[in-house]
Amino acid sequence: MSRMHRDRLKRQGRLRLCVQVIAAAFLNGYAAGFVKKSIFTGKTKLFCVPVLNCYACPGALGACPIGAMQTVAGGKGRSISFYVLGLLMLFGTVFGRLLCGFLCPFGLIQDLLVRIPLKKLTVPRSADRLLRYLKYAVLLIMVLLLPAAVQNELGSGDPWFCKYLCPAGTLEGGIPLVLLNPTLRSLAGVLFTWKTAVLLSILILSVKIPRVFCRYLCPLGAFYALFNRFACYQMQVAEHKCIACGKCTSVCPMQLDVPQEICSGECIRCGRCKAACPADAIRTDFSVLREKQEHTA
User: Fold this and answer.
1) Which CATH number fits domain 228-296: 3.20.20.70, 3.90.226.10, 3.30.70.20, 3.40.50.410?
2) 190: phi > 0 → left, psi -120 to 50 → alpha, else beta; which?
3) pTM score, two decimals?
4) pLDDT tens digits, residue range 52-68?
5) Which of 107, 156, 217, 221 has the greatest number of CB atoms lying within 10 Å of its CB?
6) How far apart are CA 90 and CA 85, in angstroms?
7) How far apart are CA 49 and CA 135, in angstroms?
8) Taking Cα atoms as reference points, which of 273, 234, 267 lies closest to residue 250?
9) Is residue 162 a contact partner of residue 169, using CB atoms and an 8 Å limit?
């Protein structure tokens, strides 16, 4: 890779990092929550943010869509939140997994951890492709089916993903609330220990495997992946320009074969491949707008 393209890759990385930090600060901007040691309950909590962001975080200004879906599915009505589902479909149709690459706070955490200068682990391709299906199973089973099918002692369903797996919830909500409230510290038991162990495991793996949670476990990433191929925002490789140098594939955090898989549901649209391409063969734009322009030209 030439110095020019290395510099371009660094600039793109810094720009994306700035966007991620601003997004995380905006979504969790209620600083008074940490001072008051309580959860924000203002009117903005009625609205779902487009990324995985814990409702219980003291600074969170909006609701997490996955948590909201589980709450409705596990309620006594055992129904589907068409508001949340419709909102996520709108986000997915317009942006696809661009939201994962630029706005997700837990994606930012993973991107920072992978910068630690330790040798990275390349998951064997066959295992990687198989493990990717786990996030779809998490979405179907833990987010949709179990909350509706399994009742607790109160006659409602537990939010299985939030309660037993979500590392973002533990990092953003569980740990801050336990640290800030002595009463909660005294009540922390086996479940909190389990969630902390899950979080630590994912954080450690994130140092060695880029975006490991996004690749294999995130149910919201699985949902947006269903829309990636036909979302308005697209990335394309111009075959007549591609020189098959492999530099795009070498920098992909999702371990994709970029020329073949850039339109797959696994691409988080982070733009690293485009910045690294020495032939400028990768284009990013809103396909609907591009098609409209081409038809009017």
Assistant:
1) 3.30.70.20
2) alpha
3) 0.91
4) 999 999 999 999 999 99
5) 221
6) 9
7) 20
8) 273
9) yes
